[in-house]
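[Q] Does anyone have a clean structure-token version of this?
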Amino acid sequence: MIFRLLLALCLLPTMALGAEVRGLYEAEMLVPNQTRSERGLAMAAALAEVVTKVSGRRDARLRPRVAQAIRRPAQLLQQYRYRVLPEHRRGEAIPGDDPQLVFFQFDKKAVDKLLRDSGLPVWGATRPTVLAWLAVEDGGRRYLLGADSPDELRRLVTREARRRGLSLLLPLLDLQDQRQLSFADVWGRFRDPLLAASRRYRPEAVLAGRLQRTAEGEWQADWWIIEGRDSEQWRANGVLPAEVVEEGMAGAVSWLAQRYAPLTAGREEGHLRVTVEGVRSLADFARVEGYLQSLQQVKHVRVRQLGAGRVDFGLALQGSPEGVAQTIALGQMLAPAAAPAETAGIDVPPDRPAADSQHYLLRH
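[A] Here you go.
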């Protein structure tokens, strides 16, 4: 039994890792006490964090309607509660008589409506998984940051990724990783070794970071994100490591959001035809219909046509067809397929569906 469990754990990184991100409508803030005034300030900051996390846009809080809502956050609040500040975060405590954390949860429908009314996207919980290779140079010590690193920097990275709504994965740094990738490979930002070592984890994107503490005690970081053939680079500087980590996570989220949750301001709500092959039973039909209805960009679903093992759905969208295709690609239920001639007239490559029609095969 123990052997089987260990085997399962070893195989875990080889699984596809497009993930459901939890806590998008929640935030936790550090406060010096439980007074009403401090709670109000924390609530406003929490709502600003939530709208940034849900939209994927760092400037979301600056939109007039959003800024007005942040000034009156209680109107969107569902619940709040306090908890004791963990020991490892005591160093962050604000001067006060009783520093602690306060948790806020906001109403999903109200937040989504606020964002859409402001011309901002609503980025659903299904998001691409990002594998992060981070090379750190600190006081003459050089190392790669892994999933089990007993390091405050690792806690900063994972906490900031969660705060930003980023599905982040750190490597195991086991013997297989060590054989395929070195500190120098990450520090030098060598693309081929990075991507080769990342294949076992099957992420949708790879984030490389080069973090260094200077002789003056400040931090600087170079960040690089890769998805397919596309990539982006940016730099961050700060007095504290948290500042460069925050810029790294924020930059990754911002770049991914432009691809998976594009702005819809000035665009009319559209319609999309989705054809699914391999629907063999009523249970299959219910699975597919429920899945399509669950997508964040879909307002409602109707059946256009039923055939032998095939169903044509009509989707009313509150996002872009490209966003729907990218979200489906992250899941495990539908596989892209070429459209048959009688449906589309011209075959469309699986990775580039037509703008108003998409074709899939149900995975069993």
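[Q] Thanks! Anything notable?
[A] The CA atoms of residues 159 and 246 lie 10 Å apart.
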